[in-house]
Write a structure and sequence with these properties.
Strand 15 (460-465) and strand 16 (471-474) form a beta hairpin. This protein has helices at 8-34, 36-58, 64-80, 84-99, 113-130, 146-149, 177-191, 283-294, 327-353, 374-383, 393-402, 420-425, 437-444, 488-497, 513-520; strands at 152-155, 161-167, 196-202, 207-213, 231-236, 246-250, 253-257, 259-263, 273-277, 299-304, 320-324, 366-371, 404-411, 428-432, 460-465, 471-474. The protein folds into 3 domains: 36-55 and 88-96, no CATH class; 111-210, no CATH class; 229-495, P-loop containing nucleotide triphosphate hydrolases (Rossmann fold, 3-Layer(aba) Sandwich), CATH 3.40.50.300. The chain is elongated and about 115 Å long. The protein is α/β, with parallel strands linked by helices. Helix 5 packs antiparallel against helix 7 (177-191). This is FtsK domain-containing protein.
Amino acid sequence: MARRPLPRILSTGSAQIARSRELARTAADSATDVLHPLITITRGLRRLASAGRRKWADTPKDKRGPLLFLVASVVLVVALVPYGPLLAVIILMAAAAWQGRDRTPPAPEGPDESQTQRLKSLYEALVPYFATAEDPAPLYAHGGEWEKAFPEYEFDETSRITQLVIRYPAYFTDGEADARARIEQLLHAKSGRGREYRFAWDEEGNQLSVTVLPPLPTDIAAQRFVTAPGETVLGFTDPTEVQRTLPLTHGEEQRDVPPVVWRTGVRSTEPHLLVVGQPGSGTSTLLRSIALQALPYGDVVIVEGGGTGEYACLTGRDGVLAVECGLTGALASLEWAATETERRLIAMNRARQAGHPPPEDTRRPLWILLDRPSAFTHLATADGHRDPQSLLQVPLRHGRAAGVTVVVADQFDSADALSDAVRQHTRARVVLGPATPAQVEAVLGAPPHTTPVADVPPGRGYARLGAGPVHRLQVPSTPDPYDDETSEADRQAVLALLPPRTTPVDAQTVPTETEAVVAEAP
């Protein structure tokens, strides 16, 4: 799908600023290289002058006269000797260059003792996996040289590995997922738990790159993102994964953060979204964030199966057609959504056959957000009603052409209750909260390229759009503003994004005949 072009100020402004910074940095480095001798001599002259002032201050007052006479005599002799001034200048410059040299102790070459011990231990742990008895020149052997196996490595201030390049034999079965998983699990345990690692396998070069990833920012509050219509920010990821950044406001600070943008509409290849997570992982937060981004451009229908009132702040707002928490209301809303999808398809088809553009009432996007629909499945089965998920077949199958987007969020323990239509037509997937690699692969269709962490903050997970790569994801903080545990800053951020309340029909006033005449008068 062709990417929608950004506004000029967004597509060129950041690039120009980056190029300007790079040019300025390059010019500064070049000037430093060219002027390095002059900088060194100037620094030395300043140090010699400081030393002279200290010597003069330490000299007793009764000895300053003879000292001045001695200095004057030396200057006079130098002035009278042939080539004396030139030799004096040369000696002064040499002394200044010596005094102005960089006295910073050079960084130690190679790892220190503790770092070397870590690399040796890691090497010995990899020997059973990368060594065979038939290898005539083994790269891995007990007591072997780890320098050949680890050509590149970096450590942090605590002597823990932050980046490592591992060479392995060509006969290692790096094409098998189980073999890779064993190596990754070993490296995760030996390099230090509690951190998130990215593993990049180079099968052609027989190399494995291990990188420690920094934690994603968790302090990004809900706000109006700079996106085009049809673009929804699911969260934020690593800067190396996407080629776009969004300007965000964090208090008084401005910063650019790489987003995970989900594109919907007629030309979208993944028009519907499925979110799966553990309780308290942030699935409802993501649905609230999507609803707040969708309301300026479309209408929203919310069906909540949890019955916790997570979306009470959206009730009665402009663009919010319904917020249903009961089975009867959910069935009625989803039945209307299916009928509305069919109506839009028929109206658009008639307009195309007549050679006219689509009608205005079919252009405004319609969003159907379902939070835990599996709860209604159990209720419907117990009461003998129709499963509400069966009403999603038409919006899921024909929603892209009709401008209808479906977002379903549920929990891992209820994922088996999701209908086949939901599983087949939700090509955009998000997994939130603590999950094993097998669970992530079962939902996203591909395993994550990073190791799981023990302490997972709310809204942290993985996202995959269609057949694209798996991204790390951090959902922007969009809590329920009516929750007492919500901080005041987050509450005000969400309330600022809510549309105004819709005026009820019985509260609308009908102008009298006199008022109408006055209003029409010039």
